[in-house]
Amino acid sequence: MKKRTLIGPITQVLTLDHLSLKGALQDDQLEISHQAGILIEGGKIHSVGSWERLCRNFPQAEKVELSAEFVAVPGWVDCHTHLCFGGSRAKDFAMRNAGKTYLEIAEAGGGIWDTVTQTRKMSQNQLAQLTAHRANRHLSAGITTLEVKSGYGLSVEEELKMLRAIQQANTLTQTDLIPTCLAAHLAPKDFSGSASDYLYQMAERLFPILKQENLSKRIDAFVEKSAFSPEEIRPYLQKAKDLGFDLTLHADQFSVGGSQVAVAYGARSADHLEASGEVEISLLAQSNTIAVALPGASLGLGMGFPPARKLLDQGGSLAIASDWNPGSAPMGDLLTQASILSTFEKLSTAEVFAGLSFRAAAALGLSDRGKISAGYQADVILFPTADYREILYHQGKLTPTQVWKNGKKTEHGFIPIEPRAQF
Ligand code: NIG
Ligand code: FE
Predict the structure, then answer these.
(1) Best substitution site from 103, 274, 299, 328 to test ligand 1's pocket, by max atoms within 8 Å of Cβ?
(2) 198 and 303 co-located in one domain
(3) Higher confidence at residue 253 or residue 1?
(4) Which end of the chain has less Cβ packing within 10 Å, N or C?
(5) DSSP code, position 376
(6) Is residue 85 in contact with ligand 1, taking CB distance under 6 Å?
């Protein structure tokens, strides 16, 4: 018989069961199991229910008895990050705050290209160490699955180095890393040819190696005036789609256009959406493309938030991700960002929790996680409180006491922001 572990008694278990993938959610739709146990078998949730009943029915299970009040929620899923990078862009941040715009800084040689230069200087091993370090910081905050993009390499070899580093980092941390190829982040300054030539070359040369080495199943692109236009990106996306890659786009961050392409190509998600208007909102809401809000980028750039409330009210699906990157979103604190977004956009706790769990998992094409329900991965966070509403109320300052990944309690302590001295 497989080993079974029984955790409890837990004051409130928020299973997130029976919540829809799309549309607005009310807090009274949250199913809460009180004084409950979570029974884990083989890394998956076996059952959730009354602690006393589970103790009676499964006397052989190894018990992890809790002696204080806790609320359990599913491990968070951060479906959009760029946390594999070298260097820092503190200079950009200071310049922006002193009045320069993100695009002005990019045009003057800062921005994404600066990080490309610094990332190219690093070895695969150094990048893997940094990525695992940041992923562990996320894990200690309860993020048990996180997407990591390439996109600071911008040549076949350098993109491969990044994706191999992400693959290596995945072996160095307990959290699951889901790699995405973002070779279409920016047309690199050192490529002699048009943006379309660059994309053609990446599709022809890089895509087959991604398949061979199983480095990524997902292709992302930045559709924006400073990056790639809808016309330039279409053939690239078509090629990716033909090869069976999942698609996701950086869309409508500063100007519209990207979300329409995302819907037309059946992308899993359209991310950013700060500039989306009524047309884009209704298009997204009627599609199966998940809207991903990145409040960390709004906070990092001093911009408005995406129209999350309207998207949900019109029936769309909304996930919330950190966008953790050295330029626009250096904080990386997903729960703080989600809580702030909920205050500005008037999101219910159920909508935020859904957006951080099973809806975010769906944006990654994963249906095996994001709920505390039989058959799901046993990814669970225990917060030291008796009332689930305390979690967003503390705006990220209430931190997990225990984080469980695949049925195992993870080890984490204080993780400093960056081990910069090593590099
Ligand atoms: O999602 N918008 C484009 N890409 C990132 C920023 C990356 C960077 O500035 O390094 C984003 O905000
Ligand atoms: Fe991003």
Answers:
(1) 328
(2) yes
(3) 253
(4) N
(5) S
(6) no
Q: Measure the CA–CA gap between 266 and 380, rounded to whole angstroms.
A: 31
Angle 106-110-116 from CA coordinates, rounded to 5°: 105
Q: Measured in angstroms, how far is the CA atom of residue 144 from the centroid of ligand 2?
A: 19
Question: What CATH code is carried by the domain that includes residue 403?
Answer: 2.30.40.10
Peptide bond into 295 cis (omega under 30): no
pTM reported for the whole predicted model: 0.97
Q: What is the mean pLDDT of residues 102-115?
A: 85
CA dihedral (133, 137, 363, 396) in degrees, to 10, reads -160
Same domain? 325 vs 225: yes
The Cβ of residue 227 has, within 10 Å, a number of other Cβ atoms equal to: 21
Give 241 or 422, the one with higher predicted confidence.
241
CB atoms within 10 A of CB 274: 20
Between the CA of 296 and the centroid of ligand 1 the distance, in Å, is 11
Task: Find, among 186, 171, 111, 177, the residue nearest to 143 by Cα.
Answer: 177
- Evaluate: CB of 82 within 6 angstroms of ligand 1: yes
376 shares a domain with 264 = no
> Using one digit for the tens of pLDDT, what is the confidence trace for 39-93?
999 999 999 999 999 999 999 999 999 999 999 999 999 999 999 999 999 999 9
Amino acid at 395: Q
Q: Quick one: 240 and 348 in the same domain?
A: yes
> What's the structural domain count of the chain?
2
102 lines ligand 1 (CB under 6 A): no
CA of 251 to the centre of ligand 1 (A): 11
Q: Answer yes or no: is 418 within a domain.
A: no
CATH number at residue 240: 3.20.20.140
Q: Is the CB of 164 under 6 A from ligand 1?
A: no
How far is it, in rounded angstroms, from Cα 354 to Cα 196? Answer: 38
Ligand 1 binding pocket includes 222 (Cβ within 6 Å): yes
Of all ligands present, the nearest one to the C-alpha of 151 is 1
Q: What are the residues whose beta carbons fall under 8 Å from the beta carbon of 380, sequence distance 6 or more?
A: 7, 38, 72, 73, 74, 75, 372, 402, 403, 404
- Boundaries of domain holding 30: 4-75+370-409
Residue 54 forms part of a structural domain: yes
Residues 198 and 187: beta-carbon distance below 8 Å: yes
What is the Cα–Cα distance from 348 to 98, expressed in whole angstroms? 35
